[in-house]
Amino acid sequence: MTTTTTSSWTKRHILSLETFTAEEYETLLETADSFREVLSRRTKKVPALQAQVVANLFFEPSTRTRSSFELAAKRLSADTLNFAGSSSSLTKGETILDTAKTYVAMGANILVIRHRQAGVPHTIAAEMDRLEGNVSVFNAGDGQHEHPSQALLDLFTLYQLLSPSSPHQFLQGKKIAIVGDILHSRVARSNLYSLTTMGATVHLAAPPTLLPREFQEFLGEKLVCHWQVEPALTDADFIMTLRLQKERMSEHLLPSLREYHQQFGITRDRVLLAHPHVKILHPGPVNRGVEISSDLMDDPELSLISQQVTSGVAVRMALLYLIGTSD
Amino acid sequence: MTTTTTSSWTKRHILSLETFTAEEYETLLETADSFREVLSRRTKKVPALQAQVVANLFFEPSTRTRSSFELAAKRLSADTLNFAGSSSSLTKGETILDTAKTYVAMGANILVIRHRQAGVPHTIAAEMDRLEGNVSVFNAGDGQHEHPSQALLDLFTLYQLLSPSSPHQFLQGKKIAIVGDILHSRVARSNLYSLTTMGATVHLAAPPTLLPREFQEFLGEKLVCHWQVEPALTDADFIMTLRLQKERMSEHLLPSLREYHQQFGITRDRVLLAHPHVKILHPGPVNRGVEISSDLMDDPELSLISQQVTSGVAVRMALLYLIGTSD
Amino acid sequence: MTTTTTSSWTKRHILSLETFTAEEYETLLETADSFREVLSRRTKKVPALQAQVVANLFFEPSTRTRSSFELAAKRLSADTLNFAGSSSSLTKGETILDTAKTYVAMGANILVIRHRQAGVPHTIAAEMDRLEGNVSVFNAGDGQHEHPSQALLDLFTLYQLLSPSSPHQFLQGKKIAIVGDILHSRVARSNLYSLTTMGATVHLAAPPTLLPREFQEFLGEKLVCHWQVEPALTDADFIMTLRLQKERMSEHLLPSLREYHQQFGITRDRVLLAHPHVKILHPGPVNRGVEISSDLMDDPELSLISQQVTSGVAVRMALLYLIGTSD
């Protein structure tokens, strides 16, 4: 572990990628890389956060994401506390902010927060700053707003694959297609910031109900919107598929899963439109045969899904380390 | 850590404060004080209970209390096992005693038990003593009976605030008001023992349905009952508010939350009746605007709620340490 | 810890006892014995699986079995991750195999799997072998098929009690009665393999609806079926009772719990038929007064139930150690 890369880190919280600078992405990638190296050793632990407490406050359930944060914290030698919304005292009338403050009063140094309402982590972070308790807040997904660590693990997965000599603008010249329910996806929103900042051009593809025309203005020339999948895939270097929430059907935003797959599903035929070395990403869990045909998902030549999960632990270690050791 | 203070400790179990002696309160306060000092260090762990197993058997759910016990155990280097009533084999027909014995047979040294029936921890402790397995039982709340560690963290919070030269009778001359559903509160019951033993005079205030006249005989001259809140608050040094269970309404013991707040809620006006340096405690989670007005709860000059949570970890470390290292 | 005993271990997975050899049983018993000795020390931990990750994937809930695996893993210094079916992403459309792969991609080295469908652990193990990731799968109960670690802890409990000079055929000449719902019991199925391989003769007793005539052909001369309990108990050295699932009543396989107890329940009168030193086992949790009368269960001269639970931790440590350190 080099510490030189982290001396410039100033963020106490990980809330949103909207304000991430190119330098911060670069520091994160280099730090994650060194943790990836730690994970390949026989002894996979470092004492970086020894005696610190990471509290996972998941007001919206997610076993796989909580496990990833939990393992990242344990490998930094932190202690972890888990709070799940369902078994909580929230049903007893306490506010979310009260719950957060309770865990801080117990000794939590980092609060990892998932909530289905956008902005909850920001509100808690603002209160923590006001109280000057040196507590960090880590947004693990807030409503349809952002999911920074998911986008950063996607970025790190590409970084590992491309293995550039420097992280600086390492996606320059790359075309990345993001396909699916853009409108409701916090993963897509976070990815737009990170991918374009690192130099990529992003092509979004979705039915008009899931990709309103206003989206085009979001990030200017680095962003292109399509209401058909084919132009987004053509010559793409990477295809990012998004998870389709089945609730969209009951909201009449989509006719049927079958029809969605016919129009926007990633199939072997459609992959032929892309760059010969194209790779496919998905934040998981996958609805097999909906967002992507089942055989593509299992094709190690095409799918980066497993690498994304592995990157998740390294990236979360890096982020916890950066916010947990900055002043 | 000094061990001299603990040489006199003889209790194997923490079941009730009814039998706690003044000396035991003093030992506990001094031990908690030294753990409070441990928690302020950079390395917050001590190896006191290394390789011991603390099993949290919560037959009644409580995330915040379980987390506090879990963190206390981890900071003593114990391993923890969590059992939650809902996912239990109790639904399969096993008795509570069988569950407790199973965890002991696995290797648990300390059973932390919460159950909505009064007396369950005592029954389990009696069986453990009969089996001579050197196992400790810790009552984390049994029905409407007792919640010793909550009362002890209240006591420790006052001890820290007053910072007396000795814990001996350190509440002598203090007036403490306890306001709310006294009848159903295990927290109030435990506090009556600890506060009066340490010298305080306790004034209880509640509607007659929640504070029967028989209560007066409970502890004699150290205890005064009121069916209005104002005389209890007048010149009080500390105000302890109790959580109001919403079930009380459906049981027709209370007309409405609004009316309760009007008659017994702690408001800024009512606080003016108390001693100028009065502080407010609440075991949490708070029903904001019911037991206490929301702005008082957030006023750091008045509220000790956050300190209570912090004290909870130190007090539970001390208690686990005392029972886990006695013979 | 001697390592000589384990040099011959070749199994990567613990899926079924059907293919266990006598040598493997002997290695397991000797390894569990050395861990039993570790557990009797003041410091109960060994660094054998340090930095390894054991993921408990319990698609079917079982608090006691999960706690036993969790404690075994912690005492080998492994990190643990818990996944419970109910809070899972399975409801989101992911396959079980996808879930398993996700935990492996995060870094899990051993997957402990419980599922109500027979064969799930085998399917996952086959996929893990195909992927050549050096991951072990441990069947913690699959449908009505097998529950290897339960049968092995039964075997180890008998081994400890009999304390033979060598584990070789140490049950030779012993009569063991297994009483209860044989047809649906994965515990019984696994025990048939282990007990007969180690030399015992096994007598099964159950109503015809729960013990079909075809069972007789299962293991030849080492196995005798009875549709009454008395001949099975006569001169038995050990009585293994099985848990009766209450669902059997609604499936019309049993008239009533009371009638079952009258016909097949282990009572003090029936125990008189057995060998004077007979001991009783039960995998737990017990339906008191159904499979066994309540007083027998609590009689330390007769019941091995508590020892079985203790053996469980040592046996699971041994199995995790053997599969976690083999190449």
Automatic annotation (TrEMBL), chains A, B, C:
Pfam families named in the record: OTCace, OTCace_N
Alphabetical UniProt keywords: Pyrimidine biosynthesis, Transferase
Domain of life of the source: Bacteria
Recorded metabolic or biological pathway in which this protein acts: Pyrimidine metabolism; UMP biosynthesis via de novo pathway; (S)-dihydroorotate from bicarbonate: step 2/3
Domain Aspartate/ornithine carbamoyltransferase Asp/Orn-binding: 172-322
Residues annotated as binding L-aspartate: K92, R186, R243
One cellular component (GO) term of this entry: cytosol
GO terms classed as biological process: 'de novo' pyrimidine nucleobase biosynthetic process; 'de novo' UMP biosynthetic process; amino acid metabolic process
Top enzyme class: transferase
Reactions this protein catalyses: carbamoyl phosphate + L-aspartate = N-carbamoyl-L-aspartate + phosphate + H(+)
Domain spans labelled Aspartate/ornithine carbamoyltransferase carbamoyl-P binding: 12-159
Nucleotidyltransferase among keywords: no
EC code: 2.1.3.2
An MF annotation (GO) of this entry: amino acid binding
Binding sites annotated in the UniProt record for carbamoyl phosphate: R64, T65, R114, H147, Q150, G284, P285
Protein family (similarity comment): Belongs to the aspartate/ornithine carbamoyltransferase superfamily. ATCase family.
Protein task: Catalyzes the condensation of carbamoyl phosphate and aspartate to form carbamoyl aspartate and inorganic phosphate, the committed step in the de novo pyrimidine nucleotide biosynthesis pathway.
SUBUNIT field: Heterododecamer (2C3:3R2) of six catalytic PyrB chains organized as two trimers (C3), and six regulatory PyrI chains organized as three dimers (R2).
Protein name: Aspartate carbamoyltransferase
Lineage, highest ranks first: Bacteria, Bacillati, Cyanobacteriota, Cyanophyceae, Oscillatoriophycideae
Gene: pyrB
